[in-house]
Design goal:
164 residues, alpha+beta, 4-stranded mixed beta sheet, two-stranded antiparallel sheet, 24% helix
């Protein structure tokens, strides 16, 4: 088993001002002249999308995208291809359930790499600087009975998942 970042979305939704630092320069708010940590924002967006997406058979979000920047992966999770996306927000408008949040649509190509190869087995900086303990560094696997879902080999999310 390998260490993973675990995001507690229920805790995240309950607070107003989440803050966590990032060791990657271009994810820091100061580097981007923005107040957010874009690495963590992308992780939170990915986790939220996995949990709330209705995975429609006739996915209006995918159909509406003029750049073919959205698609379902082999696990049925909606993914955005950042090199195709122009942040036009057509998918957000087309989604009948409002589950494509505008905060995941800014055109940013830099995403979290989970500090693979940079943390030397230590927790990533975002985990260490998260005072709310929304992010944790864990050695566990997904457990649907406990609402712990696998997003990727390095990311788990704990939250009740919408079911069809």
């Amino acid at each position: 088993m390998s260490k993973k970042i675990l995001i507690d979305l229920e805790k995240y939704y309950k607070i107003k001002d989440f803050k966590a630092d990032c060791s990657y320069y271009y994810h820091q708010g100061t580097a981007l002249a923005a107040p957010k940590n874009w690495g963590v924002e992308k992780l939170l967006a990915k986790a939220s999308q996995y949990i709330v997406c209705r995975q429609c058979k006739r996915a209006d979000c995918i159909i509406s995208c003029p750049w073919e920047a959205l698609g379902f992966n082999d696990k049925g999770i909606l993914e955005r291809y950042s090199m195709r996306c122009t942040s036009c927000k057509t998918c957000s408008t087309a989604c009948p359930f409002g589950t494509i949040y505008l905060d995941i649509l800014p055109y940013k190509t830099s995403q979290c790499d989970y500090c693979i190869g940079r943390s030397n087995g230590e927790p990533p900086l975002c985990v260490n600087t998260d005072k709310e303990k929304i992010l944790q560094w864990v050695d566990m696997e997904a457990d649907e009975s406990k609402n712990i879902h696998k997003i990727s080999d390095y990311l788990l999310v704990v939250s009740p998942k919408w079911k069809k």
